[in-house]
Structures are given as C-alpha cells and as structure tokens.
Amino acid sequence: MSLKIRLARGGAKKRPYYSIVVADSRSPRDGRFIERLGTYNPMLDSGHADRVTLKAERVQHWLGVGALPTDRVARFLGEAGLIEKPPIRENPIKSAPKAKAQERQKAAAAAAAAAGGSS
To answer: Is 78 exposed, middle or buried (0-12, 13-18, 19+ CB in 10 A)?
Structure first.
C-alpha cells in the first residue's frame, strides 16, 4: 500500500478549507483516509499562525513509515522544518517559446546589439 500525505478539500463553494491527511494513494481526494495530520486554510493571510497547522510528531511517524508528501504538502513541511525544503520549481518547459519564436528573439537581440554598437 503506497501512502501519501496530501490535501483533502472541504469548505463551501469558493471558500476552500483543506485537511492534511495520510491516505492510500488509490483512494479519492476527499474520500477515505487513515489519519488527519493538520489543516490548511488558504483564505487566511500568509503570515497568520492558523493558516497551516500540523501535528509534527505524527507527521514524522508517517514519514518514517514511508508516506510521501505531495508537492504542496512538502512545501508546508519544509517551512515547518520537518523535512528539507523542496526546490522551487520554475515554469514548465511547455510554456517556453517554441523554436521559431526563439529564433526571432535571437535575431531581435542581435539587431539590437548591432544598432547599439554602431552608435
């Protein structure tokens, strides 16, 4: 059984509230879980103390058993000092300009350098 530490959504429409839970990776997002480890309230300011609450000793237990946190939960755990902070991911490669657009950018940069160098 592969375990995940992930978010389970609750709250009303347009008022999200998440529980941080340990669940089998095959169970639905808001479905069955093993244990609730904390909460995340994105409606609060980022500096607010109650934005993310965690049961640190239980999180350490589940990490020791082999549960893997999702990307968002790993950021929370890294900020709490329970695991090493994950690196901040850059934009995906899909959003980078395609080959023709990159050629146009290089040509424009070369033209700008030539114009700037001759003045």
So the answer is: middle
Q: What is the pLDDT of residues 11-46, one digit of tens each?
A: 999 999 999 999 999 998 888 999 999 999 999 998
Residues 6+ apart with CB under 8 A from 44: 50, 51
The β-bridge relationship of strands 35-40 and 52-54 is: antiparallel
Domains and CATH numbers, the chain: 3-80 (3.30.1320.10)
Please give the model's pTM, rounded to 2 decimal places: 0.72
Residues 6 or more apart whose Cβ sits within 8 Å of residue 70: 4, 5, 6, 7
